[in-house]
Target: Alpha/beta hydrolase
Amino acid sequence: MAASAFVELPWQGRTVRIEHQWVGTDRADAPLVVFLHEGLGSVAMWKDFPQRLCAAAGLRGLVYSRPGYGRSTPRPADERWAPDFMHRQAHELLPALLAALHIDTTRQPPWLFGHSDGGSITLLHAARHPVAGAIVMAPHLFVEDVSVASIEVARQAYLTTDLPQKLGRYHDDADSAFWGWNRIWLDPAFRTWNIEAEVAQITAPVLAIQGVDDEYGTLDQIRAIRRQLPATQLLELPACGHSPHRDQPEAVIEAAHAFFSHHRHHNARGQA
Model:
């Protein structure tokens, strides 16, 4: 990927530095897709997937690391996230980032592409802000026992293996990234977290993708989206875990390209 750039913006009473990269075509009139990473993700952890998707679909891409991740401002060591942490990312941080980068979401609403926690943030943002459409992979709409069990396994791995060193390749502060995510997901107060009502407010088209063998959630997560939004397209991938873009990138790119193409043409006809 290209070298990261940085932008500073006020958030939660302090100034945070947000790492971001532009990928894909440099055509200013090309549709923009914003990539939102998983709970332990960052700009670098996407690897070359955003470029591959943007090249296939002729899109501009914006990839960024949330505060606490990648090369963005780390989470203060004593900061514990509240159950509304994804709501705050969707309704405060992302709009502030888009504004700081001079992206006019009213004139040309962006597409969103989110994975895991980033998929949940995508859905929350789309429920309240203008977007052209949303693609989500392995999003969470509610907390399942399988999610909590796998996140506990991750906690043990972080404490007893070289996982901190591995995450340190992608984050300036691996503890910031890991414990912010892990502690809130294992907090008993988070067990009742549920965004199905918010998802029901989305008016943009949605493509939801999940691996049949996802270790962090069941297929009921994406099926719950279609229960709220019957027009949602679902792609359930066999022999695929929690990261479809790594396990089956070609299938994800093909489905995303078709989704973008169909709805871009539909939107163009509607504006004609």
Q: What stands out?
A: The two ends are 37 Å apart (CA to CA). The chain has a mean pLDDT of 95. The beta strands are 5-11, 14-24, 32-36, 60-64, 111-115, 133-137, 206-211, 233-237. Residues 249-271 form the longest helix (23 residues).
